[in-house]
Every structure is written in C-alpha cells, then in structure tokens.
Amino acid sequence: MAPPSPDALGAGRGTLRDDGVAPIRCWLFFLPGAFTPVCTAELGWVDELAERLAPAGIGLRVVSCDSAAVLRKVTDETGIRTPLLSDFWPHGAAARAVGEFNESTGRARRSSVLMDAAGRVLARIRATVGDERRLQDHLDAVPGESSTSWR
C-alpha cells in the first residue's frame, strides 16, 4: 500500500495547502482523537517535525478517525499547517491498512508509520496509552539519515 495521498483521505480543511509533490517517504501520524489532551500536545510540534523532514523529501500526514468537520475545527483552533486527514469513512480504513486500528476502541492507535512510495513500512513508532510520542523519535527512526543531519 502506498501512503495515502491527501486526496485519498478527507482533508481537515476540505482542501490542502500542499505543494502537490508526492513525498518519496511519508510518516502517517495517527491520532486516536484530535481533541484529546495527549493528541493536542502532539499537535503542538507536528509543524516543526514536518519542516525538519521536508529537506530530506519526507512528508508528514496527520490521520485521525475524526470527521473532516472536527479536523477543520482543530485546524482553526490550533493554526496547524500540517495536513490533517480524516479516516472517518470507511471508518479507520487507512489505520486498518497499516495495522494501526484498535478494534476495541474504534480509533487509531497513537502511532506513526513511515512508508515509502511503494507502500513498504520503513519504521513504526507506538506510544503506550496516555503517553505522547516524541518529535526526535521520528527523526531518529528514519533509515539512512544520521541524527546529526536533522539539526
């Protein structure tokens, strides 16, 4: 499976401020619920992560099972520039496709999956329930990139 394009998932704003260039690699950054305290904290640094990944040709897409209307409100309230994509219907299809849907909660796991353009999973980060992922963990997990290249 190739990383979902912004057109394949409903963008939080209905349209994306995207350059239209498909990244060679892309982090799918799954949120269990965009307005939960931990997810809101993570959204505080995703724009910085996206900016740091871009020079290496790595995209970042935030994906949540929330509706596009909820994600639009999150974007309005937070000012986030990174695309927020809705995996609302068919419910959780993108999260299921990469093994990150939690059937018991009906939401995506708090996880990130790095994929290449051919759909191969290159790295995976999962946080335990109630814990936040870290920006640096995403940078450190990128194969072929040294940790010093991100500074």
Provide a descriptive summary of the structure in words:
With 151 residues, this protein is α/β, with parallel strands linked by helices. It is built from five helices and eight strands. The protein has a six-stranded mixed beta sheet with strand order 1-4-3-2-7-8. It has a two-stranded antiparallel ribbon with strand order 5-6. It is globular and about 35 Å long.
What portion of the residues fall into strands of 2 or more residues?
15-25%
Number of helices: 5
Helix content: 10-25%
Q: What strand order characterises the main sheet?
A: 1-4-3-2-7-8
How many β-strand stretches? 8
| Class from secondary-structure proportions | alpha/beta
Distance between the termini: 31 Å
Main sheet makeup:
6 strands, mixed
Which key terms come to mind for this protein?
6-stranded mixed sheet; 151 residues; two-stranded antiparallel sheet; alpha/beta; globular
Topology record:
Elements: E1 10-11, E2 25-31, H1 37-43, H2 46-53, E3 58-64, H3 68-78, E4 84-86, H4 93-97, E5 101-102, E6 107-108, E7 111-116, E8 121-126, H5 135-140
Parallel strand pairs: 2-3, 3-4
Antiparallel strand pairs: 1-4, 2-7, 5-6, 7-8
